[in-house]
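FAQ: What does the model actually see?

It sees only this:
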Amino acid sequence: MYEKESLNYRGMTISVFYDECPDSPDTWDNPDCFLCSDYRDLHVNSESISPDECRRAIEGGKYFLNGFYIFPVCIYDHSGLALHLGTSHGWDYSNGWAFVCVRRQKKWSWEKEKAAKIAQNVLDEWNLYLSGQVFCVCAEDKYGELIDSTCGYYGEEGIKDGVAEAKSIIDYRLKCRLKAHIAKRKSQIKHHVPLYAR
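And it is asked to produce this:
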């Protein structure tokens, strides 16, 4: 794995690596907000709505279909893919092949702004995935023995979460080690083990 960064924490090492086999966001099975696409290598299927249904609805002037808000996605295709809400024009852009669908929740007003924010979050996750910004965080002791390893952290915020989780695991491990050490010493004192043998 290709290392991005590492840090020392309480005598242990926390390393951040690029995740070489990240799970695609379409494997998360979120039925309330998702991307559906049929564009070259970006095929994202949904059981709820197909890209063709979305395209037909928007061409008919509808941005709400089967309980979902429909947002068109512009695909920038040049040395990789980048997704943006809305439509754009230019030789590197493609419109009408991808859509974000956000289910209208109970107690929501008909304001589209809330759904648009959720749609943008969906695209932010996809853009991190498409640009390879998914990471693994590993914690090792001072001898290089692996304590914990977790993958699937998206972006810089994900790295912060992963490092915080690794620190809490190290803290817990050291706390358990100290507790065991104190219990051992108490037992040795109780049984009058001489100092040289402790």
